[in-house]
Write a structure and sequence with these properties.
By secondary structure, this protein is an alpha+beta fold. The protein has a domain at 115-225: Jelly Rolls (Sandwich), CATH 2.60.120. Helices cover 14% and strands 29% of the residues. It contains 2 helices and 6 strands; from the N terminus they run ααββββββ. Strands 1, 2, 3, 4, 5 and 6 form a 6-stranded antiparallel sheet that branches. A hairpin with a 5-residue loop joins β3 and β4 (186-191). The longest helix is centred in the N-terminal third of the chain and has 22 residues, at 2-23. The N and C termini lie far apart (175 Å).
Length: 227
């Protein structure tokens, strides 16, 4: 009776374990590992080493930096240099050569009723000798250059002057300029004595400045005209 009981138990065990033996994985197939995540959350299955190797082998090789196209660096263009703006220069009259033979003036000689002064005067000379109407008297500076002036108490309009040298010193005056004394405006420049035309100017004092001469100049008359 015990033998029959043992055979029965063995048969029941075989019948119970048969399903497990039929579903057991084959040796050539490996079950995908499943690791439960902490806290009960599911995780993706671990990758197959063989598949990872194949995917790694099929990824493209990194491109070398040396093979990339080199873009030209932008060329910086320098801005054009700013040209300095020239400052306006004062307008000076062109040099003139007076007529050696004075032309007949129009109107009265304004110097007769005026006063005279100058830079220096030689011994025995007077400034007023240039406005007395007498060619025998004259003014001379202390050297070869100097200034002689005609001045008025009220403005006079002048457009022409005549410089007459003493008869024994004609041709000594070389270069000169005519200046509006109070404004400094140069009305004319030139060389040699004689008739000098000026822009029509209203002034109180007019200067005849001798800038060079051969010997000591002698001015017998400094005549002024309104024109």
């Amino acid at each position: 009776m015990l033998g029959c009981l043992a055979v029965g138990v063995a048969a029941m065990l075989v019948f119970a374990l048969a399903p497990l033996w039929s579903s057991a994985p084959r040796p050539e197939q490996e079950a995908t590992a499943f690791v439960p995540a902490p806290g009960g959350f599911a995780q993706d299955p671990a990758p197959d080493p063989v598949s990872a190797t194949e995917e790694a082998g099929s990824s493209p090789a990194p491109v070398s930096l040396s093979t990339r196209a080199t873009l030209p660096s932008p060329t910086r263009v320098a801005p054009p240099a700013r040209q300095p703006v020239p400052s306006p220069q004062p307008t000076r009259p062109a040099p003139t050569t007076p007529s050696s033979v004075p032309t007949a003036p129009s109107g009265p000689n304004l110097s007769i009723a005026a006063e005279a002064d100058g830079s220096t005067k030689a011994s025995g000379r007077s400034y007023r000798d240039v406005r007395d109407g007498d060619l025998r008297t004259y003014w001379s500076p202390e050297g070869t250059t100097g200034r002689i002036s005609i001045k008025w108490l009220s403005p006079a309009t002048v457009s022409r002057i005549i410089i007459r040298e003493a008869s024994d010193s004609a041709g000594r005056i070389r270069t000169w300029r005519v200046v509006n004394h109070h404004t400094g405006q140069v009305l004319a420049t030139g060389s040699g004595a004689g008739t000098i035309d000026l822009p029509r100017t209203s002034l109180l004092k007019i200067n005849f400045e001798i800038t060079s001469s051969t010997g000591t100049p002698r001015v017998a008359e400094f005549e002024t005209y309104g024109g």
